[in-house]
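Record type: monomer structure entry
Structure origin: computed from sequence
Chain ID: A
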Amino acid sequence: MFDASVQQFIELCQWDNARFFVFSDNVFAALVYYSHLLPLVASLLLALFVFVKNGKSLSARWLLVTVILLSVWLFSDLVLWASEKPSYIMFFWSLLVLIEPIIYVGMLFFAYAIISGKDIPFKGRLLILLILLPTVFLAPTQFALLNFDLSNCEREAIEGPLALYGYGAEIIFSLWILGFGIKEFFAAKVAKDRRKILLIMGGILLFLLSFSLGNIIGNLSLDWTIGQYGLFGIPVFVALLAYLIVRYKAFNIKLVGTQALVVTLWVALLALLFIRTIEISRIIVSLTLILFLFIGILLVRSVAKEVKQREEIAQLAEDVKRAYVVEKKAKEELERLDKFKDQFLMTTQHNLRTPLTSMMGYSDLLLKGVFGKQTKKTTEVIEKFQNLTQGMIKMVNDFLDMAQFQLGKDVVNLKPGVDVLQMLDNIKNELEFKANSKGVYLKLERPEGELLIKADREKLKAAIFNVIDNAVKYTVTGGVDVKVKNQNPVNPVRNSPPTGPSGAQSAGGVSNGVKITVTDTGIGIPKDKIANLFNSMFERSDAAKKVSTVGSGIGLYLSGQIIKSHNGKVWAESQGEGKGSIFYIELPIE
C-alpha cells in the first residue's frame, strides 16, 4: 500500500492503470511495443526451436538460457514503460540491474559453445563468478536503486553505483567475447570456418553494442525513448543465427530454408499489431514491405533451389534404377560367360589332353615292341616324338591351369602325407638327362628320410619342376644346386637327426616348414624384373630369348600361384644379368 502523499502524487500525474503489467496509455513512445515484443517473440521462437531440435548441444542450451534471461529483461523493461505503481517499477528496475550483466555472460558462454564446442575453462568461470557477485548480492539494496523519483511524472527510479558497476562488467565481458572471437578466427584453417566465426561474432557484438548503447545513452541523456532503438539489434542477431542454421547447419540442425523464411515473415507481421499510431505504422509498414521484398526473393530462390534438388534426387534415383537394371543384365551375362568358360575348359581339357595322352601311350607301346621290333632309326624318331608330345602336354597343362587361376577357380586339392624329398628325387631324375645334354650339372642336397607336407602332389611337383627346369634351361655353363632344409626343429625329418636353424630368411617367409633353395650359374635376372617375376605372364627378357627360343612365359607365374595355394612363399634373388640367380621356395610342414 502506498502512503497518502504518494497516492496523491499518482492522481496528480494522471497515470493510466496498466493491464497485464504492460498495456497502458503510459507508454508514450510509439515504437516501444514493436521494439520489445518483436525481439522477444523472435528470439524465444528460435531458441525453443533450436533446443527442441538439438537439446543435447551445449550451444543450444546456452542460447535458450540467454534468451530466457533476455525475455525477462524485455518484459521487465516494458513494465517500466507501462506501470503506474512505484513498487512495481522499483522491483522490475532492480531486476533489470541484476539480469543485464548476466545476459552478457550468457552470450560469452554461447560464443564459446557455438564456435569451439567447449565450455569456458574453470578459471574463466571462477573469474565470471567473482565479477557477478557484487551485482547478485547488492541488487536488492540501495546500491542498485536509491529511491523513486517523485520530482516529476516520468515514473523513474534513481540508480545507485551498482548500475555503473554493471556497465563496467558488461564492457569486460564484451571485450572478452571480442578477444576470444579474434583468437578463434585466426586459429581456423578453413575459409568456411572463418566465415562462420565472423558471422557469429558480428551478430553477437552487434546485439551487445546496440543493447549497451541504448542503455548508456538513456542514462546520460535521460531520454529513454532512444534506448528502444538499440533493441532492434536483437532481431538482426536472430536473423544471423537463422542464416547460420540454413547455410552452415549450425547446432547440427538441417532446417529447410523456406521454413526459416516463413517464420520470419510471421513474426514481422505479428509485431505490426503493436504499433500505436498510424504515422509510425506507415513508416514501419514501408520498412516491412522492403523486408518482405528481400525475404520474398530469398524465399523464391530457396524454393527454386529445393525444387531443383528434388528433381536432381528424382533423376538420380531414376539413374540408379537404370544402372541396377544394366548391372543385373551384365551380371547375368557374366554368369553365362562364366558357365561358357567352364564348358570351354572342360571341352579343351578333353579334346587336348586325351589325344596327347593317347599319343604318349601308343609311342610307349611302340618302343616296348608291342607292335614289332623297331629299328634304331625308328626308335630315335619315336623318342623325339615322345619328347615333343611331353612338352606339348606340359604346355597344355600350364595353359589350362593358368586359365583356372585367372577365373578364381580352385586348382589344387591338398592332401596330407606328400613326401617333398621323394618329389625332388623324381624331379632330379627327370631333368638330369636334360642338364647333362647341355653340359651342365644338376645336384640335389637333401637330408635322409622323408619329409611329409600337405599338398597336391601333381600340382606342387609341376610348380617345383618349373622352377628347377627354368634354372637348367637358362644355365649355359656351370650348373644348378638344389638344397632342402627343414626349418621346424620340433618336427624334424623322419628317420634322420634334427637339422640346425636355417640361415637368413626373406621377409614374410614361412618360419615353420621346408625351405628349398635353387642356385644356378645362369644368365641372371634383371633387377627391374625380379619384383614381378612370379606375378606376370608372357614376359621374357632378351637374354632369355637368346639362350632358349622355347618358352611360353607362364611357367614361373603358375609356380607362384600353385605355391601360394599351398600357403607357401616363393621369390628370387639375383645380382643382375650374367651373375646367376637364387630361387627360394618355402612350404609349411604338415
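Annotation 1: The chain has 17 helices and nine strands.
Annotation 2: The domain at 30-253 is CATH 1.20.1070.10 (Rhopdopsin 7-helix transmembrane proteins).
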